[in-house]
Backbone:
């Protein structure tokens, strides 16, 4: 069973700063099968990144994804006020077919 | 407009049953895999179940296997989750979400419903 571990649990940053979020898999994950989501309080998650590095429709280019194998990263180049939220990575595979990480909260410092 | 709308949540006693529905509109429902994802109060996202476009492939999280049943009716553009033997730990907001894998690429869960709340309590 693939387990995704996100770090840090909470990231305290100021608007304009760079955010780097990590997602580590317990087994190798195809980069084609790794996605990132943003969730704000009281809202459904929103797809940001698929295929580890491709931005979903309408996602600003300050969001970027990278990584391969067991280590993946979501980077927000310059935090805007609306970017403070919880971020989840997710893998698609065979065992189990879909798994989410536990999330990283990006909060205002 | 591409939309998913869940319904059927509510308060149920432990051991009880509930059937969730998800109505799809604005896209060709029959070409997408569909998922149920839940979120317990104050917790993260938990994948619950998936069903392929033609219902050939069905998967469940270990936490719900044997108690929940996912199904779909492509003629009605609808997804369902039959939940039996409910437990307190099943209390959560339940979201339906579509996803797509094509050409060796997983395109992620790109459309989500607003969620329906299930509370299991005596």
Residues:
């Amino acid at each position: 069973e693939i387990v995704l571990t996100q770090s840090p649990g909470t990231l305290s940053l100021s608007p304009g700063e760079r955010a780097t979020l990590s997602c580590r898999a317990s087994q190798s994950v195809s980069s084609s099968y790794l996605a990132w989501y943003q969730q704000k309080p009281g809202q459904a998650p929103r797809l940001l990144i698929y295929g580890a590095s491709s931005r979903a429709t309408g996602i600003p280019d300050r969001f970027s994804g990278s990584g391969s194998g067991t280590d993946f990263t979501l980077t927000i180049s310059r935090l805007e006020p609306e970017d403070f939220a919880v971020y989840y990575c997710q893998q698609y595979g065979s065992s189990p077919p879909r798994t989410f990480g536990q999330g990283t909260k990006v909060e205002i410092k | 407009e591409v939309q998913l709308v869940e319904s059927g949540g509510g308060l149920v006693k432990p051991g009880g049953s509930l059937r969730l529905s998800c109505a799809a509109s604005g896209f060709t429902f029959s070409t997408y895999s569909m998922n149920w994802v839940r979120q317990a109060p104050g917790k993260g996202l938990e994948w619950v179940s998936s069903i392929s476009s033609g219902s050939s492939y069905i998967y469940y999280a270990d936490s719900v296997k044997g108690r929940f049943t996912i199904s779909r009716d492509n003629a009605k553009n609808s997804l369902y989750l039959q939940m039996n033997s409910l437990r307190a730990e099943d209390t959560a907001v339940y979201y339906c979400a579509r996803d797509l894998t094509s050409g060796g690429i997983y395109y992620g869960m790109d459309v989500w419903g607003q969620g329906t709340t299930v509370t299991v309590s005596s």
